[in-house]
Amino acid sequence: MKQFFRAVLLFGLLFIAFGCSDQSSKNNKNGTLTVYGNVDIREVQLAFQDSGRILSLAVDEGDQVTQGQVVAELDSTRLQMDVDRIQAEVAAQIQIVKRLHEGSRPQEIERARAAVASAQANLRDAQLTLSRKKSLRVTNRISQQEVDSAAARVDTWLASLKAAKEELALAVEGPRQEDIAAAEASLTALQAAHELAKQRVIDARLQAPANGFVRNRILEPGAMAAAGAPVLTLALTNPLWARTYISEPDLGKVREGMQARVQTDSYPGKSYEGWVGFISPTAEFTPKTVETTELRTKLVYRARIFVCDPEHELRLGMPVTVTIDTDNNNSSGHPAECVDPAVSMAD
């Protein structure tokens, strides 16, 4: 009896080994290679750059959105007030810079000249007074103190005349270049702050970065959104690919650009056109979630198979079977309408 069970066990092991080798050869039959994997869709967490109260959400879970479409909006009342305030400061600073560039007005120059003339007249009067008092002092008609006071008055008007002349020179010359440069720098800073304030108003309207579907609506209108906190989760539909794994013996049969057909159990008998977009340059162990007929511990190479899904039937994580045409030498014949040309085939 023990010999019988041993024979049955040996036969079963031989059958499994034969089945695995037969499957491997079947995958390469008629110039095709069959690999397995899952649909891999990129996701984007949409968030506002600034915090604020959510005013409205224009989409719901499952809605299809297009690139540039506004999907959510913050209450921008305070932001607009900040724009108006800085705009007024910019207008005031523009006038300051304009005044400095134009220099002194003719009236200001004439006023400075009049001040010089007045100081000169007062100085002459003080000098005449001093001369008379010195004559009177010779005959002792006045005290020495009066003479000294007259001399001090002359010195005072001499200083006033010098100051008036300096003011006239400044009025004629105009503002300093350093003052003009400082005023222009302040204007540039205010203009930059104004542009930033306007950009914040624009950023209060959250736009879809690409075509896709709304997978999750995280916040609702009226909620406070923190800067960088996700509001919506968007699944991108372009490009769409399947993440598969190619064993080392089959690696030499596959190149980027080879045509492929993708099938899924959700739509029996239907296949989707695709092509090999990327093959990893490094080996790894087969993930436990991938259904293959190879041993789990065997090293494989990750591959990305781009898929045309015009009816948006494929979903994230959906298991797929990929058949690669290894006899096709065309490496650039994939349909251009299935993937954005700006998307690189690199990982």
**Strand line-up across the major sheet:** 1-10-13-12-11-14
What is the percentage of strand-forming residues? Answer: 25-35%
The tally of helices reads 5
**Averaged pLDDT:** 81
Q: State the major sheet.
A: 6 strands, antiparallel, barrel
Q: And the CATH topology of the largest domain?
A: Elongation Factor Tu (Ef-tu), domain 3
Low-pLDDT runs: 7-26, 340-347
- Radius of gyration equals 44 Å
Shape: rod-shaped
Series of secondary-structure elements, N-terminal to C-terminal: HEEEEEHHHHEEEEEEEEE
SS class? alpha+beta
Count of spatially separate domains? 3
- CATH architecture annotation name of the largest domain: Beta Barrel
Q: What is the CATH homologous superfamily assignment of the largest domain? A: Efflux pump adaptor protein, beta barrel domain
Number of strands: 14
Q: What is the CATH class designation of the largest domain? A: Mainly Beta
Distance between the termini: 58 Å
Q: What does the secondary structure layout of this molecule look like, with pairings?
A:
Layout: H1 2-27, E1 32-40, E2 43-47, E3 52-57, E4 64-65, E5 70-74, H2 77-102, H3 106-138, H4 144-173, H5 177-203, E6 205-207, E7 212-217, E8 224-225, E9 230-236, E10 241-247, E11 259-264, E12 271-285, E13 299-307, E14 319-325
Antiparallel strand pairs: 1-10, 1-14, 2-9, 3-5, 3-8, 4-7, 5-6, 7-9, 10-13, 11-12, 11-14, 12-13
Helix pairs in contact: 2-5, 3-4
